[in-house]
From TrEMBL:
Residues 35-154 form the Phospholipid/glycerol acyltransferase domain. This is Lysophospholipid acyltransferase family protein. CDD domains: LPLAT_AGPAT-like. SUPFAM superfamilies: Glycerol-3-phosphate (1)-acyltransferase. It comes from Streptomyces mutomycini.
């Protein structure tokens, strides 16, 4: 109930009024049935803007840190993310990927929309990074379509480190559903899930117009942080 109050009465109308998002390709989102919406991830605002413009409820896999903050603020944040349909996923340890896949398949088994960011984390520089293969495993195993999505302009309104977003118009684009039924039964084959993931990322790239980096975002962030530590003046 709280989800629908936020979406249709409180947060949704406020976001649409403030950012006046341009919506393209909304007809590609199915009216019913399970599907994965896979998008780029440029800003903390992405968590709210896409769900606000969709007619259907969408559940996202979110990092567990959003749910484990200390004190009253942490509890309120966790309650808020639970209320808007986010599922906490522990991204540490060897079982992290499998846990995310199990949670995602659980959402899809109920015929719902699952939202996922294949890059695994927000882009720190506005570029599109290599996708992780969990999205492919879920798509093949569940036998559901993947709708690529591109958030355009959200990096500019709220780049990493900026708490309050700028009031500026953004664009949200959805592409045609991608069918991977030809890969049925191959979700344990590395070559197959890599091919599916790359096809999804290519579709997102075509929608977003970003520069593509064939490297995982987490690794690129770590490299940048290390360079900043060693050469602080150069990184400014």
């Amino acid at each position: 109930m709280f989800y629908y109050v936020l979406k249709h009465v409180v947060l949704g109308p406020l976001l649409r009024l403030t950012f006046r998002p341009r919506i393209e390709g909304l007809e590609h989102i199915p009216d019913e049935g399970a599907a994965i919406v896979a998008g780029n991830h440029l800003s903390f605002s992405d968590h709210f803007l896409m769900p606000a413009i969709l007619k259907r409820r969408i559940t996202f896999l979110a990092k567990a840190e959003y749910f484990t903050g200390p004190g009253i603020k942490g509890k309120l944040t966790a309650a808020f993310f639970h209320s808007i349909g986010q599922i906490p996923v522990d991204r540490s340890g060897k079982e992290a990927g499998q846990a995310a896949i199990r949670e995602g398949l659980g959402v899809l088994s109920k015929g719902e929309l699952l939202g996922i960011y294949p890059e695994g984390t927000r882009s720190h520089d506005g570029r599109l990074y290599k996708g992780k293969v969990g999205v492919a495993v879920m798509a093949i195993r569940a036998g559901v379509p993947v709708i690529p999505c591109a958030m355009v302009g959200t990096f500019e309104i709220q780049p990493p480190g900026q708490k309050v977003p700028k009031v500026k118009r953004v664009t949200i684009r959805f592409g045609e559903p991608l069918d991977f039924s030809r890969y049925a039964g191959l979700e344990d084959q590395k070559a197959a899930i890599r091919a599916v993931t790359d096809e999804i990322m290519y579709a997102i790239l075509n929608l977003s117009g970003q520069e593509y980096v064939d490297e995982y975002a987490v690794k690129a962030k770590a490299t940048q942080a290390e360079e900043s530590r060693k050469f602080p003046r150069r990184s400014r």
